[in-house]
Amino acid sequence: xxxxxxxxxxxxxxxxxxxxxxxxxxxxxxxxxxxxxxxxxxxxxxxxxxxxxxxxxxxxxxxxxxxxxxxxxxxxxxxxxxxxxxxxxxxxxxxxxxxxxxxxxxxxxxxxxxxxxxxxxxxxxxxxxxxxxxxxxxxxxxxxxxxxxxxxxxxxxxxxxxxxxxxxxxxxxxxxxxxxxxxxxxxxxxxxxxxxxxxxxxxxxxxxxxxxxxxxxxxxxxxx
Length: 224
Hints:
- This protein is of the alpha/beta class.
- Helix content is 28%, strand content 21%.
- It has three domains: 23-82, 2,3-Dihydroxybiphenyl 1,2-Dioxygenase, domain 1 (Roll), CATH 3.10.180.10; 87-160, 2,3-Dihydroxybiphenyl 1,2-Dioxygenase, domain 1, CATH 3.10.180.10; 174-218, no CATH class.
- The protein has helices at residues 7-15, 34-43, 96-105, 177-198, 205-215; strands at residues 26-28, 47-55, 58-64, 71-76, 89-93, 114-116, 129-131, 143-147, 153-158.
């Protein structure tokens, strides 16, 4: 054990224990007008969790987007960043067209749907934007952008199929009914092939579906 390693760290290393969870749950954004920002984020349909003012110099406002495990916090005395300097915050959606249409209908200014000229993630700002969704409809490849009243920049990214290893078996979740329906349809198709292979009806299909849906995002699909 070296001088900077604690006994607990040493014990963990010796046992080969898994790393402890470190869940990103709060994103602090800089705003100039707290009430204006509060009104804007409420207009997106986000849930207001907290609005507490200790005094004139310290106030905390906390919102959570629908289906998100990470929340947004802003207020007075909570960050030294310049208002509007927050950029590139990503909101993952399963149906980009539907989300964009809903927000535009609510009066939110959202960019057109775009993909990047290089086909991989997207460049900073508006550089390299190509109008329209990803031409091959690839998951992770289509985007739309909007900003809050201070200019903090948000990006919608459409994800329909997760990359292998991106979801843990113990916390498989879906952010919308359409995302869950898609997983069920894929499981049904795969289960049909499974029944063809075994040559009879599988009465244990609920467990098979559950196992498939949990394993699919990790790349470990059931094949027997």
